[in-house]
Amino acid sequence: MGTPSLSPWAVLVLTLVLLGLWAPRVRSRQPNFIVILADDVGWGDLGANWAETKETPHLDQLAAEGTRFVDFHSAASTCSPSRASLLTGRLGLRNGVTHNFAIASLGGLPLNETTLAEVLQEAGYSTGAIGKWHLGHHGRHHPNSRGFDFYFGIPYSHDMGCTDSPGYNLPPCPPCPRHSTRVARKDCYTEVALPLFENITIVQQPVELGSLARRYVEEAARFIQRASDSGRPFFLYLALAHMHVPLSPPLPPAPGRGIYGASLSEMDALVGRMKELADSLGKGSTLLWFTGDNGPWAQKCELAGRLGPFVGAWQRQRGGSSAKQTTWEGGHRVPALVYWPGRVPARRTSHALLSVLDIFPTLVALAGAELPPNRRFDGLDVSPVLFGWSDVGHKVLLHPNSGAAGKVGEIEALRLAQYKAFYTTGGAVACDGSTGPAERHQPPLIFNLDRDIQEQEPLDVASREYQAVLPAISRAYAQALQDIAADNVSVADYSQDPAAIPCCNVQHVGCRCQGAHGGLGSSWDPHVEKRTPRLCL
């Protein structure tokens, strides 16, 4: 039988294919992304991490069906800086956000910083943010001006305003006033009610905390449905109120863990519902990434999360907490799970040194987009680690001070392989009210985390091990500071003005909305509220 003849064009294409110089371009669909950021969650708050925890069956199932990262870190150990780093891939010394914004802040994440949402929006994504923002709410700092097509949530922490049914707190906070009498209370916001936004409209003030988790899931489902109907991929950034201080949980206190355990169960159920939503789009179409913004808020005692083994024993012996706001492991080592059926291996535990900083460059790469030019990034594209092709992450990871010791934002600790060096130590406010004074260390304290995960006993300065690793640590520290100094860095505006406080009706005590739940004798109608703008920024 004769061989069919080929056209000259077909011969050329076949030759190029065989030589590996040409391949037909097949455009695969861009994946959807759901990033869930828990607030003040402890590494030990997941049963998959810590056997004593029993309240997280959905998160544990997520770990079983995806990959669990056990050496994963927030980019700072307090709210605003950590969130700014997630959305920019840059440390606070670069993006300008070194400490928290206030309810009266005029500024926010600097406008010359490019957010992950802006990059993905440009790449064709529908973008939504639901939950806590805390990166500036006034003017162009609002989420709708930072790349998010849709926003629904509270512009800062849910204890930064009064409510009619206050959540649990230490010390307990009173409900919003209904008359002009001023009630001052230390550590409580008593004069302005907590607002709930839909885009630039306040739809409820004060917020009903007891229904917040349910409403976040409902809004997430609506956003996902709208994106699905449009045929566009989506990026959903879901920044939970849990576990900052517990909301008013609809569940009875959990045996052995009380109110915190009930709130943890509520968060777990919320994450389970988000997994169901992701799966409903077709398994393999959506990457879900769960992590935390920093470690537990130890000052809140029984309302704080579990550290697991990361207790910062050296600091505890000297006073203060070694959790949130500190550079001890309990302050910045956070749980992390990635679920993407068919792409991310199931039942895998990774020991790669990773960070919240990596979310930005990784999702940008997976979307087929480009990183913004003219700036340097601290995060890495860690998709090879996600896919199980590698278990190598950062060679060096920097830990900035987040309020416990030294100047905020300054690099006070550094991780190099299994070694962690402290140039400044200090403890945040502990449950007993104690703090640990700042101490400078030159030469630095160095711990070997492979042998001493509790950070109890630093290496002897005279030991061979210390002397062998010190030069590499010193070089890495100097190079990091030089790199930041040479970068295109931003400066955040931390000025405040009472006029910037979100208020849907300045004529009402506490800024109550007419018709808001429990306000002025009227029930709150979400449909009416959504048609009637309360505040346009």
Automatic annotation (TrEMBL):
Main location: other
Subcellular location field: Lysosome
Cofactor(s) annotated in UniProt: Ca(2+)
Cellular component aspect of the GO annotation: lysosome
Name of the top EC class for this enzyme: hydrolase
InterPro entries named among the record's database cross-references: Alkaline_phosphatase_core_sf, Sulfatase, Sulfatase_CS, Sulfatase_N
Signal sequence extent: 1-28
Domain of life per record: Eukaryota
Coiled coil: none
Keyword Kinase: no
UniProt-listed Enzyme Commission number(s): 3.1.6.1, 3.1.6.15
Cited Pfam families: Sulfatase (PF00884), Sulfatase_C (PF14707)
Limits of the Sulfatase N-terminal domain: 31-369
Keywords: Calcium, Disulfide bond, Glycoprotein, Hydrolase, Lysosome, Metal-binding, Signal
GO terms for MF: arylsulfatase activity; metal ion binding; N-sulfoglucosamine-3-sulfatase activity
Reactions that this protein is recorded to catalyse: an aryl sulfate + H2O = a phenol + sulfate + H(+); Hydrolysis of the 3-sulfate groups of the N-sulfo-D-glucosamine 3-O-sulfate units of heparin
Transmembrane feature ranges: none
Family: Belongs to the sulfatase family.
PANTHER family: ARYLSULFATASE FAMILY MEMBER (PTHR42693), ARYLSULFATASE G (PTHR42693:SF42)
Protein name: Arylsulfatase G
Organism: Hylia prasina
